[in-house]
Structure formats: structure tokens, C-alpha cells
TrEMBL record:
The chain crosses the membrane at residues 269-295, 318-344, 364-386, 407-429, 449-478, 499-522, 733-758, 783-803, 823-846. This is ABC transporter permease. The keyword Transcription does not apply. Belongs to the ABC-4 integral membrane protein family. Residues 58-74 have a biased composition (Polar residues). It comes from Streptomyces pyxinicus.
Amino acid sequence: MTVLKTSLRNFLAHKGRMALSAVAVLLSVAFVCGTLVFTDTMNTTFDKLFQATSSDVTVSAKGSSDTGETTSRTGRPPTVPASVVGRVRGAEGVRSAEGTVFSTSVTVVDAGKDKLSPSSGAPTIVGSWNHNDARTMKITSGTAPKGPGQVMVDADTADKHHLRLGDEIGVITALGTHHARVSGIAAFRVTNPGTAIFYLDTATAQRTLVGRSGVYTNVNVTAARGVSDARLKKNVTAALGHGYKVQTAKEVADANQKSVESFLDVMKYAMLGFAGIAFLVGIFLIINTFSMLVAQRTREIGLMRAIGSSRRQVNRSVLIEALLLGVLGSVLGVGAGIGIAVGLMKLMGQIGMHLSTSDLTVAWTTPALGLLLGVVVTVLAAYLPARRAGRISPMAALRDAGTPADAKAGIVRAVIGLLLTGAGGWSLYVATEADKATTGSGWLGLGVVLTLIGFVVIGPLLAGLLVRVLAAVILRVFGPVGRMAERNALRNPRRTGATGAALMIGLALVACLSVVGSSMVASATDQLDKTVGTDFIIQGDQEYKMIDQQMVRKIKDTPGLARVTEYKLLDASLTTPDGHVSTSETINAADPTYARDVRTKTVAGNLADAYRPGSMSVFEGFADRHGIKLGSTVAVDFKDGGTARLTVRAITSDEAVVDKGAMYVAISTAAKSVPAGHMPLDQLVFATAEDGRQAAAYKALKSTLSADPALTVRDQTDYKKALKDQIGQLLNMIYGLLALAIIVAVLGVVNTLALSVVERTREIGLMRAIGLSRRQLRRMIRLESVVIAVFGALLGLGLGMGWGATAQKLLALEGLNVLDIPWPTIIAVFIGSAFVGLFAALVPAFRAGRMNVLNAIATE
């Protein structure tokens, strides 16, 4: 009980100093809990949606997607004949069965040809209005579609795009554009995460989406009273045979949920990873806080030991303070995490993904995990200072002698740090010499961990060296004040090293990712310059968006073009000369001019020969595995088509970046085996302008494509910019998440300076007494903060660039062989670190300047 009272008294006595450490714990726990609450809420929202929108049993075409999406390479959804509905109705246990048609391979535009698609990346669905949808949608105005000229839209899409009854819209499909006017608006009875839905009547949906009547994409089956979904599925399967896909509501919902969870898991674990980094940085802050508090209470600890307190009691006293800090920070962090989750939901609403707070899901495991992490991390971080406090002998403490083993411990620490750093450097070197990226990535990970730990351990030694160099460059120009700031930073190298290390971790990751991202852009740009010999690339803005033949004809009719190349992807199974059957392969079918548009390196033969009738190419790795040589024959069984025996005329290099691992045939060769109705639409179209007419052709192509805003045309400059922007957006998101760790590191600098000012109260009073002005005192503290921040930046940027350069060596094995150091980013981060130091010193410097000189001198 006495130990608990002592700990509580000390905690409250230093509540101001504990606050910054508590904020670090709070932020880290809040990020963890916010991530878990947000992803759990997303799962709950999608669960409710999928369960509400699924019929008891769904019948669809064999081979269609488990999730119910109807995208396909032909631009038309797979269908079942209308006769299936009657056969299903005759099955035992069926109350009702209804055929429906819907597709996600669509683009919907308003009268001004602006897209009406969600900005969140969710799909746009056009389908027939049916009884199953009537259960989940409520018509709030107008009526359901009753003819070819009418369409109903969901309320969220109507609000976002300001659609009203009577407004005209266009539904663009592979079959053309269908125009209709809004006849009704329907609201979801459950939360809509952002999907845009448009409803046509059944006959119009069949003609618009499939191109013929008498077929459906799905049959929705409702069970009779007392019949389970599993039993109904068995009965329907018995009635239809095994030529169709039959799924229960749970199976459809689970498949949809699985596809959503794969995305959510990536986001969740990425965010938890950054929270872990923040926890790691927070450990340095907590260690520094308790180390300095223990140092300031050395005499107090000596008195406690002198009157009978044991080492264990002193140790326990410090750990109890850490426990109080961990509990307080974690409890506040759990509450803040729920607030972060709500904020993320509001943010997602701004980009079109609507999440209702009524679905807010806080599982009991979330606060439990947050409390456990916060308390355990805090207590573990305080263990070393607590152990050090318990080892101080009473007599040494009473005369403020500190621990006599500090010097010896420093030597041991330096040796261990050098060994770890050396081992990490050797691991990074081995990674650069690896023959395979998979092998090298393991060595890279080991090298990153070892060098990071090594730099942390060796931090005090590096602080003693680098701070002197930085002081010579930065501080000496400030005269005596600069020299005092240098001595303050060098007074306790362990503290300076730990404070700099906290900042080092975040900046090392920033530098590493900057180098990797910049190198990827530079490598891709270099490959684009070397391999792409066409002027323009035309493609859809989404993966599922294909280019229909009507648009291809318009592109070919565009004035100013010398040639146009079509490019398709076909699914096939291959039987190689060694008898191996390779299923689920993708064949790249293109016009013969593709060999001029994309210059692909070959290890045998000429790629242009692969476009001869009855010919194909394979890639180097595939050829080596199956003993394929020039002149070998491969049997290609095209999906929805026949089998062709093709002669290998070229073997492409595995070093290619564009279309790496592709196998090519001519479109005319594939067309002999694949019926026209099953031939995929174009994935890409390449266009080359006539000499001197590039600008005019570019403008003309943009005009041609204005009929379908989901298609874009890019010249090489546009393509490079899009690539750079895409990687830049990803990096900016990562930098935003890393900002949490950097904020915690800044709190560490603030806390170190604040406690350092308290530690030097008497010294500051004496300096003020002999003439040091308040302005000079504040400048001294600011300069000390700047040199600590710049020290951490040097370590972090140097370490991060080393990691990034090693990672680029591994990327070179995949064809990305240009190392590009983004010096503007590195320099900006370095300069920004100095400003971070200035910012962190504002409050400690202000408090130091306000000290009463006489009271400061009288401080014990």
C-alpha cells in the first residue's frame, strides 16, 4: 500500500510531464482501435447489404462469378435461358422464381455526357426491376420503369448528381447507348456503401445489356414456408442438373463478403502496421520520460533506500507509475479511437462511400486489445528505467553520483550496436547480390530490422560524433549560445540518441519509400521510352471497361492516324509438347502491328512472326519449364471456342516490363477458333499518328471518345504523368499514416526538452544571474532542439536511402532497373526536420524563459 501511495504521489507530482507520454500512448491506441472499429463497421454494413439483397437461392450460368458480378471480356454478362425459370418453379419447396438481368459492364451518363458512377470505386449496376429488389428498395418518388423510355435510379446517386424526375440519362454498353428518362427514385432500406444502381424494365434490360430476349443473368428463387435454403438448393439442383450455378443466400453473401474483406484486410493491416510504428516510436518517448524522472529523483530514491525500501519496492514504484500512465492513455485512446472511426466514416462519405453510424460496431475485443497493448507497451518501456532506479545504491544516490556502471554499460552497448549494424549492412549487401527477388526480399527484411535496431543501440555513440559535426556547421555561428546548446545536447548522449532515434524511424521509412517510388516511376518511364513505339494508348478508366467494336470503328475513322492496333485478352488452356496441361492461362491477341507498337525483347525468333497465321509466342520461363523451342507446337484450347494447334515462332525475354510473361497470337488466328459472339472486346487500342500530325490526331481522338467518357486517350506524356500521379497518391497516403509516428516523435522531443529544462533549473538560474537574457536562453533551447531533430533526420534519411537503394536492386530483377534518388524530397524532409525541432522547442523554451531567477537558483 505504501508503494502504491508513493507511486500515485509521484505520478500526480509530475502530471504535466506524464501528459505528453500519455498523449503518445493515446494516439497509438486510438489508431489501433479506430482501425478495428472502422473495418468492423464496414464489414457489418456489407454483411447487412449482402444478406438483404440475396434471394433464398440464386441460379446463374455455369462459370459465372461467385459474387454475382457480371463483368466479362465480351462486355455482356453470361446468361441462362428463360426456360430455366419454369423448371425451377416446378422444383419441390419453391414458392416463387423470377428471372432478372443485370450487368456491371456499363457506363451511365447524364444529358451532358458526364459519368454518373460512384467516386468511391464501387460498381455501377444496371438491371431489371424485380420483386427481390423491391424488398430492399423503397420508391420515394415517381414510379418503377414500365417501358423502354424509363429508368429508375437510387436516391444516393440522384442526390449526388442532382437527378430529378424526367432527366435524361444514357446507358452505354457493348451493344451501344440506350437513352431513357428518370421515372422514379428509390432509396435503400439498408445502408448503401456507395453503389450506383439504375433499373430498367425486364424486356429493355434484356435488349440493352444482353442484346436478346428470352435469357436472364440470374433466377431469384424464394423458398416455401418451412423449407431451408440448403434443402431448396438441393431441390433446384435436382430439377436443373449440374449445368448451372446454384447458390444459397449465405453462399452469395459469403462470396461477396470475402471479396470485400480482401480489400478491407489490406487496409486494416496496413493501418495497424503504422500504428505499430507509432507504438515503437512511443517506446522511446516513454523510456526517455522515465529515465529522466528517475534521474531527477535520484536523491529521493536514495532516501527511500536509506530508510529501508528495497530494490524491488523502488522498481515496483516506477512500474506502478508506468501502469497508471498506460491505463490512463489507453482508456482515453479507446474513446478517441471510436471518434477516429466515426471521422473516417464521415470522410468516406465525402468520397461517395456511405456508412451509417447506426452500424457502428465496437466488438469487446477492440477496447480489450487497445488497453492490453497500451498498458503492456508502457510497462515494458518503463522496465529499463525502473530496473536502473532499483540498482542505485543509497550512498551514491544521496551524493547524486548516479550509477557507477554507466561507462561500462556504454561500451557494451556500443559494441553490440556496431555488431548489429554490421550484420544488418551485410544482410543488405547479400540482398543486392540475390538472383531472385523472393530470396533477396528475405535478406532485405532482415537487413532493415538489424540496421534499425543497430542504429537505435548505437545512437549514443553516433550522437557524440554527429552532434559535434552538426554543431560546427549550424551552432557555432550563434556564438556562446550555440556552444552551450551543443554541450547540452552532448551532456547525455543516451538521451539525445533515444530522442533522435524516435524521429529516425519515421523519416527512414519516408526516405525508403520515396526512393522506391521514385525509382519505380523512373524505371517505368525508361521502359516506356524504350518499348512503346506508338503515339496514343486508349483504354477504359476501370479494369472491366472494354472498348466495343463500334467505338473501335470510330477510332479507325479518326483523321490523322496512320495505324490502329487492337489488343484483346483471351482465356485458354494450353497443352505443351511435354504433355503438361496448363489451365487458366491468358493469351494476348493483337493485330500484327502490335510488334511495331510495343518493342518486346525476344531470346529466340522475331515477335512479328508470332502474328503469322497459325503461330504464337511464349515467354522464356514457360518455354524453359516445358521444353519449348522455336517450331514447337502448342495446343491452345480457347474458352468458349475450339482448340488450335499453334507453332511457336518467338520466345520473349523474362526481362520485359511491359506485358511481362505474355503469350501472343494474332487476332485473326484466335478468330478462327473463337466464335464472333464470344470474342472478347478490346482491352486496349493503340493509335499512331501520321508524321507531323500528332497534335491534330490527339485532339481528334479526344473528340471521338467524348461519346463514352469512361474511355481515355493518353499520349506518352499523359501516361507517364498518370503513372507518377498514381504512385504519388499512394506515397502521400503512406506519408499521411507515417505522420502519426512523426507526431509521436515530436512529442518525444518536446518531452525531452521540457524535462531537461526542469533538470537544469538551478543551472538556468545561475546562467540568468550572470547575464544570460531570456531571448538567449530561449534561443539556446531552440538550437538544442534543432540539432537533435537534424541528428535524427540524418540517421533516418541515410538509413532510409540505404534501404531504398537495396529494394531497387531487387526491383531490377523484375525489370525496374533505374535507381532514382528524389533529392528534392530528401532535402525538403531534412529542412522540415529543422522546423520540427523549432516547433518542438516552443513550449519548453517559453517556460524556461519565464523562470524566476532567484527561485531557480534556490532549487535543490
